[in-house]
Amino acid sequence: MTAPVLDVRDLQVAIGTTPVVRGISFQLAPGERLGLVGESGSGKSLTALSIMGLNRDPIRVSGGQVMLGGTDLLGLSRAELDRVRGARISMIYQDPASSLNPLMTVGAQIVEAINLHDKVERGQARARAADLLGDVGVPNPRQRLDAYPHEFSGGMRQRVMIAIALACQPEVLLCDEPTTALDVTTQSLVINLIDRLCSERGVATVLITHDLGVAAGFCDNIAVMYAGQLVEQSSTGTLFANARHPYSHALMSATVDLGVDVTTALPAIAGQPPLPGTIPRGCSFRPRCPRAVEACADEPIDLLSLDGSLVRCIRPISSDPGSGTHPGTARDAAVDTPAAQERMPNA
Amino acid sequence: MPEAALLSVKDLVKVFPSREGKELRAVDGVSIDVRRGSTFGLVGESGSGKSTLSRCILRLLRPDAGTVSFDGQDMASMSAARVRRLRSRIQVVFQDPHGSLNRSKAVSDIVGAPLAAHRSGNRAARSARVAELLDLVQLPAAMAARKPRELSGGQAQRVAIARALALNPDFVVLDEAVSALDVSVRAQILNLLRELQGELGLTYLFISHDLGVVRYISQDIAVMYRGRIIEVGPREQLFAAPQHPYTRLLLDAVPIADPSRQRARMRLLGEQTGASDRPDLPDDAGCRFRSRCPVGADRERCATEDPRLEPHAAGGTLAACHYAGEIS
Ligand SMILES: Nc1ncnc2c1ncn2[C@@H]1O[C@H](COP(=O)(O)OP(=O)(O)OP(=O)(O)O)[C@@H](O)[C@H]1O
Ligand SMILES: Nc1ncnc2c1ncn2[C@@H]1O[C@H](COP(=O)(O)OP(=O)(O)OP(=O)(O)O)[C@@H](O)[C@H]1O
Ligand code: SF4
Ligand code: SF4
Ligand SMILES: [Mg+2]
Ligand SMILES: [Mg+2]
Predict the structure, then answer these.
(1) Residue where one domain finishes, among candidates B214, B238, B262
(2) From A135, A177, A191, residue closest to B266, measured CB to CB
(3) Which of A180, A228, B201, B241 might form a disulfide with B315, Cβ 3.0–4.6 angstroms?
(4) Residue B22 pLDDT
(5) Do B180 and A94 touch (CB under 8 A)?
């Protein structure tokens, strides 16, 4: 594998003294597209914000490393970080309303991002800003540059943020629910645009999404998050064909597609996820897991490799599609494969 | 207006001034009837006027033309006192959950605010109701003391839903209200909305870009494009036999959770929907979808005559297309 451009190692984030993100590790090769999916509140946004160094009190990174190229972003001063952000790594935030400046025109905000990357003459920067706005499907882009965010629709604001993130021409792009307000054709326009950046310019991308259809089409690999940890990480094809962790499996079964039966209630995972600070002993998913046995409560469950995937479960769903009833234990399967933590190269 | 309509919108127009002097007709003559106890789904292009339409219905924006009647009464002609009373019966979940929650208030105060404003019960009864509401939307009780900025996107969205349901409203506008929820919580919220509808007869206007969700929850569905409804009809007909080329395009673009098929479709769609310098509206009198239409791009009539929303022989929906139902 080519050297990773982003290497997140055992990232831990706490709110006060309560751990919220509990040891996340992943690597991104140039051009790679990684999906981050999972339960609402599991720590996806905090993971991305922590990589960007954008956490505010009382949230802080309490451990781990975020290596961009050879530099640990977590060790940088504020000024150094400011130079990296925008120029080398940028983020599309989940919440456009509070990330755009309401007092600045849309055009000025995109131009500002362009200038972060390289200083170009004003007229040229405006032309490029209009192109970017057109690229994300905003009609009349040249005229719309002079509008303020409140004059845009929700989905148009979201696309302004995408234009800003792309203006920076980053090496790494973190996208937090970038298309939640976009109709499906505009969504495909935007996803294709990001996809081209990955394949043509080698931009490495993390896509946080609840839309498993979008993840299916875009991502090379997908990591599933639950209660602050990764519970499964596999290639996209493998995960969709045969999710091994009971949570990922349940998640995949709860999608509402055009074929669902409209006369019955939708299937959902019973119960609620644990709150940070009240994570049960042993496996975090145990109180909701249909496969749980007593041993699941004994000790923390490790993320172990299993047929090329990483799975945090001692009774993973069988790899034989159609039968979920004969669990081989992950511990057995992992006897001579190194644990996930050991896969990480030493810088 | 059909007898059973709780909400009836007629020929609504909302114009925004735009910088270059040319006005933007964000809602350009829209009529809908929302039947009592049913869900009306609204889908369409981003920027097509869905939120503007709902803001006009809620009287948060003053329409430039057209009428909105609720329970048979024109809202514009109602007395201030009656509008205030109506406020408790009509609730909304705004598109941007974080932006619509008061930053300085705790979740319990936000959810309890409508109860307090309408002096519903005493303090103890109100806090019991708040606890019940949080439980309904699958938020742990411990969230009650949090401020909005301490919530994830999906948690904030559920607070907005809880607030909208607090007063047992008759009519709820849900604008992209489940878009930040994981699929399991989304399923729970959709089940909840349907249960409440069954038990209390709630009526919903449900705006979403997620066609699977809209199909599941709505009995009637309208598709908007650049300020107009271009197709409207019962769920079964709209999904089984869409007549407008834009509706077909939307249905073809719904992502499917099958990696190899979805990748191929995504590539193909990307080629078809390449970005361009699109105008808001065409300069001529023709169909506003023409520049993207696989059917009418070269047809004379599409360039000269604006199609009206009307029934066609081919299907059970109303469609604004001269060649409705024709396959490209
Ligand atoms: N400032 C804060 N103070 C306290 N708790 C917080 C704060 N910000 C986030 N949290 C909590 O941290 C957890 C993780 O939040 P995060 O925003 O990362 O979730 P998420 O996975 O992005 O969820 P969603 O899919 O709903 O956006 C949540 O339970 C949230 O309530
Ligand atoms: N306050 C305003 N001033 C000027 N133009 C506005 C204003 N609010 C909305 N618009 C414009 O009206 C059009 C319709 O916007 P609206 O928010 O209704 O779209 P929408 O269908 O809800 O889109 P989305 O799905 O992206 O939320 C857009 O072109 C938008 O730029
Ligand atoms: S470890 Fe046990 S409780 Fe946890 S997911 Fe696996 S089977 Fe379920
Ligand atoms: S009227 Fe013509 S251009 Fe418009 S949607 Fe129908 S076929 Fe296409
Ligand atoms: Mg989030
Ligand atoms: Mg909107």
Answers:
(1) B238
(2) A191
(3) B241
(4) 75
(5) yes
